[in-house]
Amino acid sequence: DKEKYKLFWNGQKTAKNGVGIYVREPLAQEVLDIKRINSRLMWIKLCIKKQTMIIFSAYAPQTGESEEMKNDFWTAFSDTISTIPKSETILIGGDLNGHVG
Question: Which InterPro entries does this chain map to (predicted)?
């Protein structure tokens, strides 16, 4: 048997930006909520063994993009994380383009 996965995705039809999260079935049935913030940022909420977990997919603007675009991304990221209750575990995946810290 091949394993099956479900893709939760958000992006632009131009294929310039986009983020996604693959979840293996049957775990995909445990997805409680999906928040598609923009083509660079999204999260899904899962319940795993009674633990609520938020999994982010993030794609930070690359070198060469405008400061405004970079600031908008980090503001959206920060604002979104600040809304998540402390009782929920946060996992962040993606390409932060060296902007860690």
Answer: Endo/exonu/phosph_ase_sf, Swc5/CFDP1/2
Residue pLDDT, tens place only, 66-91: 999 999 999 999 999 999 999 999 99
Hey, what CATH class is 5-95 in?
alpha beta
- Give Cα 34 distance to the centre of its chain: 9
| Prior bond of 26 cis (ω within 30°) | yes
Using pLDDT thresholds of 50, 70 and 90, give the confidence band for residue 13: confident
Q: Please tell me the number of Cα atoms within 13 Å of 86 on its side-chain side.
A: 0
- Coil, strand or helix at 94: strand
The amino acid sitting at 78 is: S
Peptide bond before 85: cis, by omega within 30 degrees of 0? no
